[in-house]
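One such shown below:
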Amino acid sequence: MHDVLETAIADGRMGDRLWLYATYHCNLACVYCLTESHPRIADRRRLSDEAMVRAAREARELGFTCVGITGGETFMLPSFPETLAEIASILPTVALTNGTLFTDRVLERLERLAGADAALQISLDSDVPDRNDALRGPENFAKVVEAVPKLVARGIRVRIATTVDGQDAAELDGVCVLHRSWGIPDDDHIVRSVVRRGRADVEGMGVVPGEHDILPELTLTADGAFLHPFAPTVRHGVTDLDLLVSRQIAPLEVPAAAFLRIVADQAVGADVVRNIR
């Protein structure tokens, strides 16, 4: 399987990153959330620390070259700083976070990431506090601008992710001014459209992804394996299964084999443009 996976990556049929949905629990309720995550969510559907570490080890053996961890809010898991450090020791890792839970104690526990091949990708949608918080939640802006310099000062790599829904060029330029002032280069600023799935679909927000807009990247959740990290979405409390790859997620070779059979028919070449990342 290792050679088949490497060929599929080289051909552009799939990405080299394994995604893990750590939890669907979150302390915010963003208006465009893919998974309808919120503080009072009844079914948190988390992956255990052991399952995530095991998946990372198996991913390395199969030929994946990096790991992404998302949610929900990853830092809602009490042991996440230590789990993140362990996964980053296996493969280069990026963990997505809203940046609102970085107490002094959490920052101290994250110091082991300094110099590691790991990054925290923090969401920031506008340089205008009220505009950002309307999309993401009260005081989100203030907590992010407080946390990011502290993380950078500790030698932890930070990426900024901006999800676009009506922001004008000046507003987006303002986000760039902010992240550059923190020492975060443009290459570590990800800008993408709201994808019309999950809560965004219910709200009528964002763009409807075309068949080839999103690069397939094997994504594991407590519900199963999916085609990419925009796939395991939730509407009205029900998980969308249109892009389900496999109900079985362990051992990783099982969903990986099913995933490879699907992407074998993916279009590739210069005429395929991946518009959403």
The chain has one domain: 2-263.
